[in-house]
Amino acid sequence: MSLAETPEAVRRELAGFEQKVERPCACVFCAWPRVWWNGRRTRSLTTMVAGAVVFLAEVVCRRVKCGSCRRSWTLRPPGVMPRRQYQLSVVAAGVAELLCGELSQLEVVERYTTSVRTVRRWLRWVAGVAEPSVLAARLAEAAEGPVLPRVEPFVRRGWERIRSVVRRAGENLFLLEALGVVKGLEPPGLASVLEAVIGNRDRMTTYGRPLLPELAW
Fold it and tell me: 2 in a domain, yes or no?
């Protein structure tokens, strides 16, 4: 989703996704070439559009089933993460405001229409999404140059007990952003890089540590 689009344009695009999406030519689990449509599912999501938080309800997605392994999965619109209400564009913006901006947790909660518990979960999720040294190595490889220095995010009063989480979250956020820039992906890097890694795979947990072997510790 382009940040230049309006909420109305994004709503229209997502409303027509189920009609435009093509049936896959193979199963994403076993690569069997025979798959068929398997109904629809409706989901809601919260994303960033033109710098604003937008809630989108009743986004209809097509489901597909394999004729061999009999497993099924949902075809997601581009940029929409599986099993996640708050999309990674919102998470990236909220965590960046919390670590680098001047907003308090309550102000982040109000701006991004969420809860304190969810914001803290975002922070821990970003800290655990990858090993910073792995991201740094990927960045050095993609840029064909030296790695950026480690980033030490500002640790606010009351955060001393989660200092390591805050540091890792800041490192991952900045390294993913830099990696996205080097690869020519649309910002934020947290969303675009992980979307490129996940691809069409389903059942990627979004709370707790994601199942991303490419970014493993």
Answer: no
